[in-house]
Task: inverse folding
């Protein structure tokens, strides 16, 4: 009965054996859809382990009703809970899950931000383009490490196709009068992102920039064009 299920839910924070803990989670997930009000109780527990376990269980249910419960964990005080939430949402890969991960990409904890950005870079789907574009256009991008900035630009380019080219071109052609390292990095990162873009517009843009009057841009454009053709055609042109 539901009383027994409720009792099992309360055990989540006391089981130390990983195999036994996994068995209990499997059991609760198998009955969770019909008893969502019970298996979701762990989301309000004071023990972060219980909350993280509840996230895993809810994540296994093919039910949109779980999202309001999972949403509460976005601001949970424990980084381990927020980390588990990212892992669970990334495994789902839906538009709603991706939007929630984007909010975690703005987290106050830099480790959580990095984890969320890396998760976003692996999610496919056209809806992901707009979500990544929003991150790039707010202060999330400036707070990110260069590795994460590169991941975001690569993801924007791969998912946006021709729609991403103009933005990347702007980053490349921006004048770096003060020899800023940030500008220099973003130019290289934009070229890297263009090399991963399969659209005809990306090819034409790189061809034009390969004839640019600025030697640095000309050289980087040719390198990116060769990398792009190697990816698409399997050999350098």
Result:
């Amino acid at each position: 009965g539901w009383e027994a299920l409720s009792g099992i839910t309360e055990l989540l924070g006391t089981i130390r054996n990983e195999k036994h803990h996994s068995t209990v989670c499997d059991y609760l997930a198998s009955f969770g859809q019909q008893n969502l009000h019970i298996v979701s109780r762990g989301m309000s527990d004071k023990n972060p382990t219980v909350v993280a376990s509840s996230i895993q269980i809810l994540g296994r249910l093919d039910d949109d009703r779980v999202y309001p419960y999972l949403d509460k964990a976005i601001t949970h005080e424990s980084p381990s809970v927020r980390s588990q939430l990212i892992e669970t949402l990334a495994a789902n890969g839906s538009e709603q899950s991706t939007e929630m991960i984007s909010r975690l990409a703005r987290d106050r904890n830099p480790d959580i931000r990095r984890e969320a950005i890396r998760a976003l870079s692996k999610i496919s789907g056209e809806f992901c383009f707009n979500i990544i574009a929003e991150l790039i256009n707010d202060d999330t991008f400036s707070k990110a490490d260069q590795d994460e900035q590169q991941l975001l630009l690569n993801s924007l380019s791969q998912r946006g196709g021709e729609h991403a080219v103009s933005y990347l071109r702007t980053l490349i052609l921006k004048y770096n009068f003060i020899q800023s390292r940030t500008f220099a990095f973003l130019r290289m990162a934009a070229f890297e992102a263009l090399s991963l873009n399969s659209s005809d517009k990306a090819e034409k843009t790189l061809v034009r920039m390969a004839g640019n009057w600025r030697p640095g841009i000309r050289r980087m454009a040719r390198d990116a064009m060769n990398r792009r053709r190697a990816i698409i055609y399997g050999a350098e042109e």
